[in-house]
């Protein structure tokens, strides 16, 4: 078989097809064979040349979609907002329906796999914590945030929002999830970074209530 001259194009095609199928059928109901059948002539061997499994595909997808829709880069363009308002804008974006949010929700189940959980933790340490810290330091400079510990506050914020509120890591019922949100609101306010206001809290509570007790 001739060597693929455009491996990057093949990878993008696999990701594009997988995204379409995951959105239509759901991650759990999509098989590698389904993906291959929609690749327009590419073989299963071509798929496995680039990805070892379906899990690697959704991991690559969430990574690509995060960088394409990076909320931290988005808020940098908001020159009229202070550091705290930018953090609040990022939190608010988590309540907006999007393909990235849907795919991320489907990928949550993978965190039960130790390998993906380790990668998730490392990603938070290397990407999200520094990004949170940068905005917290901006807020300290403009006076909208009051804390003497920007790095530690960023680490706590990352844990509360990206671990404690992930049901496959810390399972919760809808009632427990809402209680956690209210506690996060109090904790972050106490830390001098009140990222959750009453309106956002209401939106987040409604999002969790819609899930019912599925995560119990």
From TrEMBL:
<dbReference type="InterPro" id="IPR049149">
    <property type="entry name" value="TetR/AcrR_C"/>
</dbReference>
<protein>
    <submittedName>
        <fullName>TetR/AcrR family transcriptional regulator</fullName>
    </submittedName>
</protein>
<dbReference type="InterPro" id="IPR001647">
    <property type="entry name" value="HTH_TetR"/>
</dbReference>
<dbReference type="InterPro" id="IPR050624">
    <property type="entry name" value="HTH-type_Tx_Regulator"/>
</dbReference>
<dbReference type="Pfam" id="PF21303">
    <property type="entry name" value="TetR_C_39"/>
</dbReference>
<feature type="domain" description="HTH tetR-type">
    <location>
        <begin position="8"/>
        <end position="69"/>
    </location>
</feature>
<keyword id="KW-0238">DNA-binding</keyword>
<feature type="DNA-binding region" description="H-T-H motif">
    <location>
        <begin position="32"/>
        <end position="51"/>
    </location>
</feature>
<dbReference type="Pfam" id="PF00440">
    <property type="entry name" value="TetR_N"/>
</dbReference>
